[in-house]
Amino acid sequence: MSNPTLRTDRVRMLGLIYKNPSISREEFDRYWLEHHSQLFLSLDIVKKNLLKYEQLHINQQTKDLQSLGAALIECDGVAIIEAESYEKLLELFNDAQFKAIVEPDEEKFLDRSKTRSVPLDFAAFINK
Length: 128
Hints:
The chain is of the alpha+beta class. It has one domain: Alpha-Beta Plaits (2-Layer Sandwich). The protein is built from four helices and four strands, in the order βααββααβ. The protein is flat, with a radius of gyration of 16 Å.
């Protein structure tokens, strides 16, 4: 067995996101999944700079997992993006098209003031 090391060819950014309080959970999930994802994926900078984009929607039926003794984060969703470097991620977030198209669209379904981001270096131990 080899010694685990963090990957140097990829980085990830995890975003904890919260829905806009003016919409329902169902509207939030549907809009994020069906509309926003397609808008985001249509940008040239996304196609050029990202290796992975994942949405993680909170499963409302498993709230009882809290009984396992782990406190649950009360966010409405998680987004994970992956790129070759943090510079590629910064280039994405500073892109004029991103700022003109994606950010205003996020206002429709997110409470951007509550969004929290976590930059991540990672090691994958199981990756089937």
